[in-house]
Amino acid sequence: MTISRRAFLRTTAGGLATAFVTGSGSPQDTKPEAAPPPRLSVEAAPTNLLPQDTLFLTWQRDPTTTITAQWIGPEKADATVRVIPPTGDEWKTAKVEFRPWPKTDLKVHRAEVTGLAPGTEYLLQIGKGPELFRFRTMPAKATDTFQWVSGGDCGTNAHAIANNILAAKQEPHFALISGDLGYDNGTSAKTALAFVQNYARHMVDPKGRLIPLVTCLGNHEVRGGYNGKRGDATFYLPLFDGLYKDTTYAALDFGDYLSLVLLDTGHVAKIAGEQTDWLEGVLKEREDRPHLFVTNHVPAYPSYRVPEGGPVSGKPGTGEANRQHWCPLFERHGVDVVLEHHDHTFKRTHPLKGGLRDKYGVPYLGDGSWGQLRAPIAAEKRPYLAAVAKAYHMTVHRLEGEARYHVALEESGRVADVYGTHGKRPAKRG
Ligand SMILES: [Fe+2]
Ligand SMILES: [Fe+2]
């Protein structure tokens, strides 16, 4: 079921004013010029990074009971990470593993703590401190309303920072960034580090809680962009291979209520073949999940690039392989929403089946303008597009029982779009 913007405003108590923090009447808070510049660079300070300069949280398995802490910096041998429950007793301690971060003297430090209580706030300490960091586990069930943010194509400029600040104000349970994080191209440690520093600095919510980061691979994480080897994702995989251990695609299950299926649009793994076979199995197992999201970097339904291949270029169109191999599976196996980026616009498609508008179809939200921008093609020129805008943005996903609200917020805090989905699409109609 599709919910109109008006219905959304009606059904959400208090409307958007209470649902989303759009700058608290102080738009200057989110203006690019008000945002602080990125911190340290490799060249400026290769050895004096403190863990808190790059500390971010992520997940390797169920976010209701685990957390993974990571930071980049000089080797901290024999470090431990302690997680302190609200009662203050029974600290959980995890050993920190570390390994080189390529092309630098820095190390990636990683510690995973398991066996946590769902829906609980904790404190986290590295070694003997001095700082204590706050975080929370995901709720056990989707009975409570909660929200998270998504986007893609960030970079390290002032717009990316402004959207970080705006995203953090929404108190999201996590952020999903689907490709083109810092634009390191697999070659610039300085850029990759700046992205992580910005994230560590700004993706902290108003209550002081760190916002865990989930990502998938984009072309700008990989040397050459496409058809690379794992080693070509020079800086990305050493940070995210906790989830992408053997493959550059993965599924992350949040209890039994939410799944994110994270795909690789040909940067390291080919779209057709093994990845598609894996995808079919993964979606079949999850088709009744109350909230089933897929995300990938290159869009099946682009808002800027050309979807059809050209006889002159001899190259396939943008998203052609997605549409051939993946979209039929999305339609058949209960995928609620696809999040895709790479084109640097705001876009929302109609619900689509076989590329055509269909009320039982799958909507595609994107198109990657957290910190990068292009002018989209007019929606009238591409019948699959429902809404487009040239706007830096990220999207807040608010889950309320069976209802999902997807609110695209522009960098200024202005609401660019509100879209709602509800319940499951009828399965196996494809
Ligand atoms: Fe991009
Ligand atoms: Fe891209």
TrEMBL record:
Domain Purple acid phosphatase N-terminal: 55-137
Keyword GTP-binding listed: no
InterPro entries: Calcineurin-like_PHP, FN3_dom, Metallo-depent_PP-like, PAPs-like, PAPs_N, Purple_acid_Pase-like_N, TAT_signal
UniProt-annotated stretches for the region Disordered: 19-41
GO MF: acid phosphatase activity; metal ion binding
Keywords from the UniProt entry: Signal
Coiled coil start-end: none
Ranges where the Calcineurin-like phosphoesterase domain occurs: 158-345
Top-level taxon: Bacteria
PANTHER family reported in the protein's UniProt record: ACID PHOSPHATASE RELATED, PURPLE ACID PHOSPHATASE
Protein name: Metallophosphoesterase
Record organism: Gemmata obscuriglobus
